[in-house]
């Protein structure tokens, strides 16, 4: 009888040890990784990458419009422009029209929304955060995102495109800027031509 009881106790201990080991192995084997590799085509439906060339005109207007396209915040501190977020030469937030042609009356196809901040103590140079928000055609509802350095007095400028949304997901590329018109006598009104080259799916 004692042998039978000892055998039963040993068997119980073995079962308990097996269950404990199994629980421990399941706990330690579970993968808590926060990322994994995916197939872009199977998971997201992404096909071959393509290069698109949007071309439009960016309009800076102040007195000629019933509503301002930018808002002022505060002037710079130790230098007249540096660090300021006051609209235009010192910076500010914008919502500017982008049109198909150089005339302000031509078809509006998107808006430029973002922030300009003066970041040079010696020249008129801005750091910009912009979103080109498309409002027409097949790209309606999509956007391109820009973050970069803008020396506004240079004839030719370039800004990097680092992302997008909608049909421009995974976008990358650059925008070439050339001043089409600048009138410093009317509140620094200007028209800037944009040639954009963007890779996306």
Automatic annotation (TrEMBL):
It is found in: Secreted, Extracellular space, Apoplast. Keywords: Apoplast, Secreted, Signal. One of its GO terms (biological process) is phenylpropanoid biosynthetic process. The keyword Signal applies. Residues 1-25 form the signal peptide. InterPro entries: Allene_oxi_cyc_Dirigent, Dirigent. Pfam families: Dirigent (PF03018). One of its GO terms (cellular component) is apoplast. Dirigent proteins impart stereoselectivity on the phenoxy radical-coupling reaction, yielding optically active lignans from two molecules of coniferyl alcohol in the biosynthesis of lignans, flavonolignans, and alkaloids and thus plays a central role in plant secondary metabolism. Homodimer. Belongs to the plant dirigent protein family. This is Dirigent protein.
